[in-house]
Design goal:
The complex is a heterodimer. Chain A is about 70% helix and about 0% strand. By secondary structure, chain A is mainly alpha-helical. Chain B is α/β, with parallel strands linked by helices. Chain B folds into 2 domains: about 170 residues, D-Maltodextrin-Binding Protein, domain 2 (3-Layer(aba) Sandwich), CATH 3.40.190; about 100 residues, Periplasmic binding protein-like II (D-Maltodextrin-Binding Protein, domain 2), CATH 3.40.190.10. Chain B contains 12 helices and 11 strands. In chain B, helix 2 crosses helix 10, helix 2 packs antiparallel against helix 11 and helix 4 packs parallel to helix 12. The N and C termini of chain B lie far apart (about 75 Å). At the A-B interface, helix 20 of A face helix 3, strand 7 and helix 8 of B.
Chain lengths: ~500, ~325
């Protein structure tokens, strides 16, 4: 009964005409930036944040969330048609998607990607509606020591699950932790490491940081290379509806991908990117003819695309119930919610049910809109790929400059953004990942506060972390992960050579 | 082309002269007035400032702009106002108790409430509420004090950051009651209250709005409120004065202008705020949505109240050494 109440509340808010409008604007922009390589969802959301200042919090969050999951739909389009992933989660889609396109089956590939995404999101949202209230209740039991355990575990996961080398991830995460220490120490109320600069007395703002690391750095990177439009397979997009055989092949991957994606979305460091990789690996494992993967197998598109969308949705659960960001976009959302005066945590679902359920309801509607935007209108997005880049990147740069200023009406934020743009550029050049930095930057102050609160409560005894069952479990798991870096390999989930594109020639 | 350049020249001339009358004009105000809010949009400061926009514009016959300059624990916005021209067109709105606590937390190296020109106070509210979980064994403030005296240093209290206005309230309240407890600071009111609801601390200090909401939901019980007389939204809760504690009562949001503002302009502004506060929409919003009182104080009263908060803090600092 309660379930039905939640659903009806969710849809009554999501169907409000203004909310529908902002949902549409969000998913439209999301698809747009997903299709365009260069500007990912994290930078785009930061960029558009000031635009939402005049909106009600519900509308703003609905729109920003739309950008986030909309980007996943758009991201697959360029993977399939150009072999260029629109954003990180769509990298695996290139493997089989582009091969399918080369064989003239771009239509079914795009079709199954969009429909799989929709099904994945649907299953994920139903699970969310069931689980979120339960989790919010459990979250209330989380005091400072439990948060210490959870965040510690989360930070280990973030570095553990990063794409490249773990050492590099630990390095960038350490930098993130140090940057997170800057600003007001809430226990004593004194400023730390601010060099007397008032702007950072409350800490470095995450919004210009993310814009720099994920937006400006791309602009810099693209100054030195030109994207070749040669590989675009635009002519042969027809028969978008997958055949019966396609559906038969894809049914398993879609169902498995939905649940896998949902679970991985809940884990810090997880979300869309990890989900798509894990799903691909899993499908290859369970397939009868694994050799066909990488040659244009529809299962290699259906599974990952479903999983990344399911994971994108479920990442909202830890954010909205516990205030823990599982990926960079969620970290940006913390900033966005704060700017709109919304405090996330276990009480949100009770204190602001309209916002909580409205956003969840809008995600379902947004996904339905995306299905329409991405299937019949696919031609429009393909045309977008012909946008002249010499025009596009200066524009992105300009919008970032304006956006950074308007977040806090502060010129120093612009400098911060450009500084992090340079850092992000160097990171990309030397193969470092920026995501652990941002997540550590957000998680470290939370960890520190929770740790010091625990110390105040326990009168300085660190045993508090082991005497409480929840925090003890997290701490032990985290140490387990740290000492056994072959954990995933032990599970046999990922083998080297899984992610190979094979051309049949 | 020549013609075009001449046109631009004339345009620039007109624009630059357009600024001159403001500098010489005797009748204030002749251009928009800006109120700086030291927090992001959405908070109480921002809402009050925006609610004042229309009535103040009508009272002063000019446009009123609200600008959010968040960050630096109110220091960025406040300092920018302090450094701007004392012409009456740049004002700042701020809860004075927060300033006082930030000053003593070494955020400021000057006392903003002394270095700026007081104009008026626009809203008053109970400074803080001390609350416990609805299931807590502490039925009254005395219960809590008794237990705290029995086990000194054992009870824990959650509240927002150690440098804000409420942390100041905690110091005042425990000092006045003569009890020793441990303060567990959180990042903001809501997380602090959540910790109370999860049973991780024994009691909590919070703002009126939070407290009223949670009490109405039956989740918490307020033990004491710092207010001038019983508070209409939760009239069953005794005030600190009733409990025999000499704690300051209402908190207030003050409007300040840069130092060196001429007396005449300051008087015009003060009058303007006095008139604006009578606007029914403003009264309704402040009362019914934020459980505050649209109480007016003139410049002198505001200054006196601010200095009283300062003196109280000085006393606490001196005695805790």
């Amino acid at each position: 009964m309660e379930f039905m109440n939640h659903i009806s509340l969710a849809f009554s808010i999501a169907f409000d005409p203004m909310n529908l409008l902002f949902c549409f604007v969000g998913v439209f922009i999301g698809t747009f930036i997903g299709v365009l390589p260069g500007l990912g969802p994290a930078a785009s959301i930061s960029l558009l944040l000031p635009v939402t200042f005049s909106l009600a919090p519900v509308q703003a969050i609905i729109m920003l969330a739309g950008i986030y999951y909309g980007a996943y739909y758009g991201g697959s389009t360029t993977s399939i048609l150009m072999n260029v992933p629109g954003e990180a989660a769509a990298i695996v889609t290139c493997l089989d998607g582009y091969e399918m396109a080369k064989k003239g089956r771009a239509g079914p590939a795009l079709g199954i990607a969009a429909m799989g995404s929709f099904i994945g999101a649907t299953i994920s949202l139903i699970l969310m509606i069931f689980l979120a209230p339960l989790l919010a209740e459990v979250a209330l039991k989380f005091g400072p020591p439990e948060y210490v355990g959870l965040i510690f575990f989360g930070m280990v996961m973030v570095t553990y699950l990063s794409k490249g080398s773990m050492v590099k991830a630990l390095l960038t995460a350490s930098v993130g932790i140090l940057l997170g220490c800057i600003g007001m120490d809430i226990v004593t109320g004194r400023e730390r490491f601010t060099l007397g600069i008032d702007t950072i007395a409350g800490g470095i703002s995450i919004i210009p940081m993310v814009m720099g690391l994920f937006g400006i750095s791309e602009v810099f990177l693209n100054l030195e290379k030109s994207i070749k439009a040669a590989g675009v397979l635009t002519e042969k997009v027809k028969n978008i509806l997958p055949t019966k055989q396609d559906w038969k092949d894809s049914a398993g991957p879609i169902v498995r991908g939905s649940f896998l994606g949902f679970l991985l979305g809940l884990i810090p460091g997880g979300g869309g990117f990890l989900s798509s990789f894990a799903s691909y690996a899993m499908e290859k494992r369970v397939a009868k003819h694994p050799a066909r993967f990488g040659t244009g197998d529809i299962r290699g598109v259906a599974g990952p695309e479903t999983a990344n969308n399911a994971g994108a949705q479920s990442a909202f659960i830890p954010l909205l119930t516990m205030g823990i960001p599982c990926n960079v976009v969620m970290a940006v959302f913390i900033g966005a919610l704060m700017l709109h005066g919304v405090t996330i945590g276990p009480m949100l679902i009770l204190e602001d049910p309209e916002l909580f359920w409205g956003v969840i309801g809008s995600m379902y509607i947004g996904n339905a809109m995306l299905l329409i935007l991405n299937l019949p209108l696919i031609g429009m997005w393909i045309k977008l790929l012909k946008v002249p880049y010499p025009l596009l990147f200066p524009l992105i740069f300009l919008f970032c400059l304006i956006g950074a200023y308007f977040v806090g009406n502060n010129v120093l934020d612009i400098y911060t953004m450009i500084l992090f743009g340079v850092i992000g550029y160097l990171f990309k050049k030397f193969d470092y990942e920026a995501a652990p930095l941002i997540l550590a930057f957000v998680l470290a102050p939370m960890l520190e506060i929770a740790f010091r609160q625990s110390m105040i409560i326990s009168r300085g005894s660190p045993l508090i972390f082991l005497s409480r069952p929840i925090s003890a479990t997290f701490v032990i798991c985290a140490f387990g992960l740290l000492v056994s870096p072959g954990f995933l390999k032990l599970l046999g989930m990922i083998r080297p050579g899984d992610f190979v594109q094979r051309s049949e020639d | 082309m020549k013609k075009f350049q001449a046109l631009i020249f004339v345009f620039c001339l007109v624009v630059s002269f357009a600024f001159i009358p403001w500098a010489f004009s005797g009748d204030f105000p002749s251009r928009p007035i800006k109120i700086v809010v030291n927090y992001s949009p959405g908070g109480a400061h921002d809402i009050v400032a925006r609610a004042l926009q229309a009535p103040l514009a009508e009272a002063l016959k000019t446009t009123v702009i609200v600008e959010n300059v968040p960050g630096g624990s109110t220091k960025i916005g406040t300092t920018s106002v302090r450094k701007s021209d004392p012409d009456g067109y740049t004002l700042v709105i701020q809860a004075v108790s927060a300033w006082v606590n930030y000053y003593y937390g070494k955020v400021y190296d000057y006392k903003p409430w002394v270095e700026l020109t007081p104009i008026a106070s626009v809203v008053a509210f109970p400074s803080w509420v001390i609350e416990v979980q609805a299931e807590s064994p502490f039925k009254t403030w005395q219960d809590l004090v008794k237990e705290a005296k029995k086990r000194p240093g054992e009870l824990t209290c959650s509240g927002p950051s150690a440098s804000g206005a409420l942390a100041y309230g905690y110091k005042v309240a425990t000092k006045a009651a003569g009890i020793k407890t441990r303060y567990v600071p959180f990042k903001g009111n809501k997380p602090a209250q959540t910790a109370l609801l999860g049973g991780h601390v024994d009691f909590s200090i919070t703002g009126t709005q939070n407290s009223v909401h949670m009490m109405q939901a039956g989740k918490t019980r307020a033990l004491a409120i710092s207010s001038n007389g019983r508070y209409w939204a939760i009239p069953d809760v005794p005030t600190f004065t009733e409990l025999g504690l000499s704690a300051p009562n209402n908190g207030f949001l003050g409007i300040y202008a840069p130092d060196g503002l001429s007396k005449d302009i300051a008087a015009v502004l003060t009058k303007g705020f006095e008139k604006a506060l009578k606007d029914p929409d403003y009264v309704d919003l402040v009362k019914n949505r934020y459980f505050m009182a649209p109480e007016y104080m003139n410049a002198m009263e505001l200054n006196k109240a601010a200095l009283a908060v300062d003196a109280m803090m000085e006393k606490i600092k001196a005695s805790s050494k």
